[in-house]
Amino acid sequence: xxxxxxxxxxxxxxxxxxxxxxxxxxxxxxxxxxxxxxxxxxxxxxxxxxxxxxxxxxxxxxxxxxxxxxxxxxxxxxxxxxxxxxxxxxxxxxxxxxxxxxxxxxxxxxxxxxxxxxxxxxxxxxxxxxxxxxxxxxxxxxxxxxxxxxxxxxxxxxxxxxxxxxxxxxxxxxxxxxx
Amino acid sequence: xxxxxxxxxxxxxxxxxxxxxxxxxxxxxxxxxxxxxxxxxxxxxxxxxxxxxxxxxxxxxxxxxxxxxxxxxxxxxxxxxxxxxxxxxxxxxxxxxxxxxxxxxxxxxxxxxxxxxxxxxxxxxxxxxxxxxxxxxxxxxxxxxxxxxxxxxxxxxxxxxxxxxxxxxxxxxxxxxxxxxxxxxxxxxxxxxxxxxxxxxxxxxxxxxxxxxxxxxxxxxxxxxxxxxxxxxxxxxxxxxxxxxxxxxxxxxxxxxxxxxxxxxxxxxxxxxxxxxxxxxxxxxxxxxxxxxxxxxxxxxxxxxxxxxxxxxxxxxxxxxxxxxxxxxxxxxxxxxxxxxxxxxxxxxxxxxxxxxxxxxxxxxxxxxxxxxxxxxxxxxxxxxxxxxxxxxxxxxxxxxxxxxxxxxxxxxxxxxxxxxxxxxxxxxxxxxxxxxxxxxxxxxxxxxxxxxxxxxxxxxxxxxxxxxxxxxxxxxxxxxxxxxxxxxxxxxxxxxxxxxxxxxxxxxxxxxxxxxxxxxxxxxxxxxxxxxxxxxxxxxxxxxxxxxx
Lengths: 179, 550
What we know:
Largest sheet of chain A: 9 strands, mixed
Keywords (chain B): Membrane, Signal, Transmembrane, Transmembrane helix
Structural class of chain B: alpha+beta
Shape of chain A: extended
CATH topology of the domain at 229-373 in chain B: Neutral Protease, domain 2
Oligomer: heterodimer
Organism (chain B): uncultured Sulfurovum sp
Structural class of chain A: alpha+beta
Protein name (chain B): Phage tail fiber protein
Signal peptide (chain B): 1-20
Transmembrane segments (chain B): 527-544
Distance between the termini of chain A: 101 Å
Strand content of chain A: over 45%
Number of helices of chain B: 9
CATH class of the domain at 32-156 in chain A: Mainly Beta
């Protein structure tokens, strides 16, 4: 009997731990990470971006970690940061900043805190230029609220007679009759 | 009786003939023309040209959404429907897609809207009783023209190939573009081209060179071979030789297709450009995509300059890509390309060497780039090290001097020969510390094929592979971007008597990129931390206490 109780206790323990881990993983899945590494990217400034962003509720602060990396060992990097109109800057940050690349560590880390009073998909945009010549643009998505699909759903989808989905625009058309 | 039948037939024929209506027309789109100013290039939405939509699918659709006719525009954007019913409501629908049986299948898809196909439609108007002309225009103001502009750039690239080899059949390609493509970047990923469409930032729909650059990756992938690692890159960088060649080719190909060496990339009114032929040389060499694009363009173009007295045109390059470069026993790089180009064009060897030398690259004699003498980190050379089965090769070092992931010396290359088919044991072990996360990939050289990829392990990584006789390549990579210079002993043995006692901590069996963290990470949500602590500590303590108190 005692063995059975101990077995049940251990089972409950395992279940609790598993449940906790499941909840943990579910929470972690709300984080979105992205890296441009591994894709055949177009040329541009020799800079790469990695970030971790979040899905947040309305008025909840999204804590965004950004790392800009470069394979160059020298050069002046300028970064312009802008927010979509509906994003609120929760902690002040520099909108235009510069830093120098060096021989050691060329990972430049930024942390931004933003929120929004509206549902939707918004962006933090970075425009990065090295030595005033080549540039590269990045946009970091911020998902706010539950209705982030609304923007896309507003666009009409029709299907043709083959069942293919079509995204239709009205053409500027001129019609004339051949007599 | 026969006379009556003939009379009836004549009336019927006349009626049918009278009721057959032709609709002809032209499908066009608006292209926003880039404006160059020094090294800057931006879009000017008041500077618009009207272009024709070539080889696209056009349908005549009735009021029931039934297609009553399908045709294709010609190379002037003209279409023709014949024998449409008279006095019937019809609209013209033009697709941003080109489909030709045993030719091509290119579709521009709206990733912002369930991968739907972009179309423009005219109005539902009666065909009347006379033939008519219906011209359709996709405008820039409502963003209906970008898919057609993208398709036109793709067709330009395809035409360069078709003019070289009219029998070519292009594997199906989809291009994803949307105004919702804001944070994706523009890239080719082996299955599709993705293009940015950020109307407040970086959009590429009118950036012909960018589109053709990415199409160049598709060409390499489908018709030749690309061993590139991918990832971020730019001029002035010391890149992995495979990446440098792929990106240099993409840039040069854009200039070759357009016959315009000014490569540009706009971000609305902002943007930049570079001259593929004559930009200022920053850190030129065999590791530089800028050097490679200049070499390839000089090999192609008809302009002679200081070191360039050769005008090969595209045909020798195309033939090399689909044959020797595709089957090279080394990794695809400038070395494999130039070696085979010289083999195929023996008369022009000196001129090819001259163009290559103008980038500070000593004469290329083989596909492995032996006998290099460049001003690079010492451990960069040799580019390929020779390994002998059952012997240990020491002091093969990776470094992060030029950056991480896809830069020069992040990967090191070995080659070895197997004479007997059997099981082989491979071990890569760091000798100058423990901070690395080595990973290796093994390839059969001919026919070129990836045999396998190891896991990523700390300090030492091993693997067993059944190998047949032949030549092999190994690519060694340190996935710890913070480990600095890491030097390794590498062994390939046909027995298991190589020391396997070194501990290793498997981290990931994934195939690319960064080493995963091996530490335990705490959840970010404080409530979850409490829940975990409660589950692990408090509840068992209560339950055990109860049990023991009985």
